[in-house]
Amino acid sequence: MGLSRLAALHGVATSFSPSADVTVSVPDDTVTAVLAALGVDADTPADVRRSLAAAESAAASRLLPPTVVAWSGEPLPAALAALPAGARLTVDPEPGTTGAPRPLRMRVLPAPAPVENAPKTPTWWTEPPLGVHRLTVRTPDHRHITATLVVAPDRVPQPPPRTHGFLVQLYSMLSARSWGMGDLADLADLAAWAGRTLGSGFVQVNPLHAAVPGRPTDPSPYRPSSRRFPDPVHLHIESIPEYGHVGEPGRAALDDLRQEAAALREAVLNKGALIDRDAVWALKKQALEIVHEVPLTPGRRAAYCDFLAAQGQALEDHALWCALAEVHGSQWRAWPAGLRDPRSPQSARARTELLDRVDFHSRLAWLTDTQLATAQSAARESGMPVGIVHDLAVGVHPDGADTWAQQDAFARGMSVGAPPDAFNAHGQDWGLPPWRPDALAASGYAPYRDLLRGLLAHAGALRIDHVMGLFRLWWVPEGRPPTEGAYVAQDAEAMLAVLVLEAHRAGAVVVGEDLGTVEPGVREALARRGVLGTSVLWFERDWAGSGRPLAPGAWRQGCVATATTHDLPSTAARLTGEHVTLRHRLGLLTHPLERELAEDAADTAEWLAYLARLRLLPEGEGDEEAAVRAVHRFLRSTPALMSGVWLPDAVGDRRPQNLPGTWDQYPNWRLPVADAEGHPVTLEEITASPRLHRLMAVLTDGPESRTAPPDARPS
User: Fold this and answer.
1) Residue 173 · residue 189 · CB < 8 Å
2) How far apart are CA 234 and CA 229, in angstroms?
3) pLDDT tens string 430-462
4) 504 closest CA partner among 73, 89, 147, 122
5) Among candidates 696, 694, 711, 651, which has minimal Cα distance to 675?
6) What is the similarity comment for this entry (predicted)?
7) Paired strand residues for 533
């Protein structure tokens, strides 16, 4: 009982429910290990008693939590409403806040007698402006506390209704000028074309976070070294202004590198080679070293200095980690002892000794940032109301720059994953260390705020992978199977408030990936704050009733509606059952092939019959391309604010970009976009594809469009 109480006080769940009617207890050893990662000693019964007494005493005497949230225009938060009469509050506004040039001072008045229709906000409260402020409270009995006060608007910005766009993994979209993988110039080009030609409202890409260097690099964009800074592998070298001013012999070296890059591109597009990020980076890094020798013009130097000042310590740490990784390898826990601490004297000396390399990596961050800005500008100038939708991975690589620079913020010996459920009896371990909720709260969520601010700087919207992580995450202790993990709660109110505030400041939409098992109340909490969800056609059924396809009018408005994602089969592969045979070849099926094929065929047939009844399949059955169009006609007939087209779907690609459950059995994250025959296609060929234009007419006002009655129900 004591351990359970101690765990509850620290947000650690001692049970979980893999299904509605099943509750599973978390092993005590797991609870003890998770508490230890949170700095709580619970090894023995005596330790539990001491830690529990300390936690209960701290809770009883605590005036305020470390971070307090106030939603603009909403009732006073309970933590402030509970302050004793006579308490004095001082709010020191966030630097740069408008509307509050000096501290705000308030005094808690005694609660008046209950009056019918009395205002919910007390008269003594003066709402501070939006921002992250310092709150100081002094009580009449001489208690004193300082906390962070986050004042957030009630909702994030919303997209215009009925906008459509593309979803694409940037690396997979090569143009005729790419260096072996898609880059930021390709992204800008796609956005400019889609906005001007198709009236598209957005382009959503995979995470562009910095990867962990090394050969081979982990190809997954969802396991980065840093989520705070982008990866310079996405740079388009020729677009860097200094590139045009390289003299001899650097010019000849650059020409040689371009020829090698052309060979990489040719191998991917015409010789069946996979995208080789390491090979691309090896060439780009050599080119960037040459370009780096060209002095910046005064204006460019001033812009770079402004960038350095704005990014501050975070960029300095990131660049130093990159420089040290060149010398000692990317596993920082194996570095010389003094260098494992970014604040040690040895690390301080390294900043001086490696100054040129720190400047090089800082410059790359700046160059990448400028090309990200260019891509968003191209999107908005094309008429896109949203523009580029960036993606935030759920975590970072345990050996990366973020874990080195922010060691106190991460839980040691823990990994994020998913508990066992009806679809995966073994659970999942994603190998990503979680942030410590207590450390985030104590810092006023500074790492989280900085992360969001960086990602939103050049984004029209932000997609958050596994958005349920804002509420809780499944922690798996090192050395234990995923079945022996435990849920650890976040302060969801604070996580949401920071997200809403930063999105409001950036004028950006927020999309949450909320597929799979979702804790009750999470979708409602996100919707209340204007965070859109993700709805994939094949999963949208009346699960609480008939189990049949969900009628278009029954879909939620606040979502991005799509037919597939990077982790799912392409629409053509699903319609033909090829995704089942692929999983069979790789030994991933849990039932006999014949049974899986039959169940999949029945599911597809039910959807196609429904589409036909809705008059969305006028071409009749047996036409794969027509069926893909019918699926997207259905998406258009829903009330979803945003409709996303998986770019490979537009040209008939049949291969998934990622096949969960595989590692080297399948070329995850390394495939170029291909046509229906499996031949890779360039960006130029994609934009000229008649198949693409026939599909996109479905989502515009072209002759291919046809809308189903929104209240149509399956018969």
Assistant:
1) no
2) 12
3) 999 999 999 999 999 999 999 999 999 999 999
4) 73
5) 651
6) Belongs to the disproportionating enzyme family.
7) 559
Q: What is the bridge-based pairing of β-strands 461-464 and 509-512?
A: parallel
Angle ∠(569,574,575) on CA atoms, nearest 5: 155
**C-alpha gyration radius of the chain:** 27
Dist. CA 133–CA 146, nearest whole Å: 10
Name 318's Cβ contacts closer than 8 Å, sequence gap at least 6: 210, 226, 228, 229, 361, 365, 401, 405
Q: What is the pLDDT of residue 715?
A: 44
Burial string for 32-57 (b: 16+ CB within 10 Å, else e) reads bbbbbbbebebeeeebbeebbeebee
* Distance in angstroms (rounded) separating the CA atoms of residues 336 and 344: 12
Question: What are the tokens at 382?
Answer: 């094309």
Residue 166 DSSP symbol: E
Distance, in Å, from the CA atom of 507 to the CA atom of 514, rounded to the nearest integer, reads 22
Residue ranges of E strands in 546-628: 559-562
Distances in Å between the Cα of 47 and the Cα atoms of 3, 52, 54, 505 are 10, 8, 11, 45
Distance (Å, rounded) from C-alpha 436 to C-alpha 10? 11
Cβ 138 vs Cβ 144: under 8 Å: yes
Token pair 């070298």 is found at 237
* Cβ burial 196-214 (10 Å sphere, 16+ → b, else e): eebbbbbbbbbbbbbbbbe
Which amino acid does the sequence have at 124? Answer: W
Write the CA distances from 170 to 51, 145, 563, 671, integer angstroms. Answer: 49, 48, 19, 11
Query: Tokens representing 346?
Result: 């040895």
Q: Which helix (H) or strand (E) holds 597?
A: helix 593-613
Euclidean distance between CA atoms 70 and 74, whole angstroms: 8
Task: Tell me the per-residue pLDDT of 486-530, one tens digit each, with 9 for 90 and over.
Answer: 999 999 999 999 999 999 999 999 999 999 888 899 999 999 999
Contact (Cβ atoms closer than 8 angstroms) between residue 187 and residue 151: no
**pLDDT, averaged across the chain:** 94
What are the residue ranges of helices labelled H in 271-341?
Answer: 277-292, 298-328
| Beta bridge partners of residue 607, listed in sequence order | none
Q: Is 566 helix (H, G, I), strand (E, B) or coil?
A: coil
CB atoms within 10 A of CB 456: 22
* Residue that is written with structure tokens 């976040």 in the block: 490
Helix axis angle, 355-381 relative to 184-193, nearest 10°? Answer: 10
Tokens of 197: 């030609």
**Of 415, 472, 427, the residue nearest 24 (C-alpha):** 427
Cβ contact 23:51 at 8 Å: no
* Displacement of CA 514 from its chain's centroid (Å): 12
- Specify the pLDDT at position 437: 97
Asked if residues 319 and 304 have their Cβ atoms less than 8 Å apart, the reply is no
Cα–Cα distance for residue pair 237/242, rounded to 1 Å: 10
Q: How far apart are the first and last CA of the chain?
A: 52
pLDDT digits (tens, 9 = 90+) for 313-328: 999 999 999 999 999 9
**Distance (Å, rounded) from C-alpha 574 to C-alpha 601?**
9
* Alpha helices (runs of H) in 297-445, residue ranges in sequence order: 298-328, 345-353, 355-381, 401-405, 437-442
- 152 membership: H or E segment, kind and range: strand 144-152
Tokens representing 276? 């080789």
Task: Give the whole-angstrom CA distance, residue 233 versus residue 179.
Answer: 10
Q: How many CA atoms lie within 13 A of 492 on its CB side?
A: 19
CB-neighbour burial class of residue 23 (10 A; exposed 0-12, middle 13-18, buried 19+): exposed
